[in-house]
Amino acid sequence: MNFKAEVLEKKRLTDKITELTLKLVEPRDIDFKAGQFVQLLVGEKAKREYSIITAPRHNGSLSFCINISPMGPGSKYVQSLKIGDAVQFEGPLGMFYVKDYLKDQLFIATGSGIAPFKSIIADLAERKFDKEITLLFGIRNETEAFYFDYFEELARQHPNFKFIPCLSEPSPAWQGFKGRVTDYLNQNFDAKFQNSVVYICGGPPVIKDVRALLMTKGLPSSAIRLEVFT
Length: 230
Known about the structure:
This protein is an alpha/beta fold. It has helices spanning 73-80, 115-126, 148-157, 181-192, 204-216; strands at residues 2-12, 17-26, 37-41, 47-51, 61-67, 86-93, 104-110, 133-139, 161-167, 177-178, 196-202, 224-228. It folds into two domains: 2-93, Beta Barrel (Elongation Factor Tu (Ef-tu), domain 3), CATH 2.40.30.10; 104-228, Rossmann fold (3-Layer(aba) Sandwich). A six-stranded antiparallel β-sheet has the order 4-3-6-1-2-5. It has a six-stranded parallel β-sheet with strand order 10-9-8-7-11-12, with helices on both faces. α4 runs parallel beside α5 (204-216). The two termini are 24 Å apart.
């Protein structure tokens, strides 16, 4: 389905990440599942896929967190947008959403791969999902951190949700986990996540490494969901 919208807000979250919020114009409502994405028209014939970070029970607007560092057509288009500009997109699309509500959920993201999980975890919280939810969020250092405050507050409100940021090159002041998401999984998977459904979102190398590790731990491929960000 095709939608017309206008830019409601733009926020720079880090040097690489911009949050874009669109107000729906025509139609004024969209029905989507947490974890789905849209195709944003970024040129005469060019489209780029961006996951929705808003929970499905929205107020007529949708938000996205977008990596603007590649400087391709999508990055340049998003950077050029101003408040009030008209945009078009197609959606919702994708099958990267929760289907099994009877098992613990483990979400693993790096960088802007956090996008679908912001929507999914907010949706699970609103549904009063009562199984264990864990989010591993891998970044390089504190300068690349975004949404930490949001997920930390969500963890305070929902005891079944655990937020574990994994910093591979943190400053000496960092008190959290030091290492990659694969390091954390190596140390903790057997004790915590054997019976979880695992969702992975990030760049191809991360997807490949995490999936391979999970397979060596004995997790069946049927329990692994993938969304590759390129």
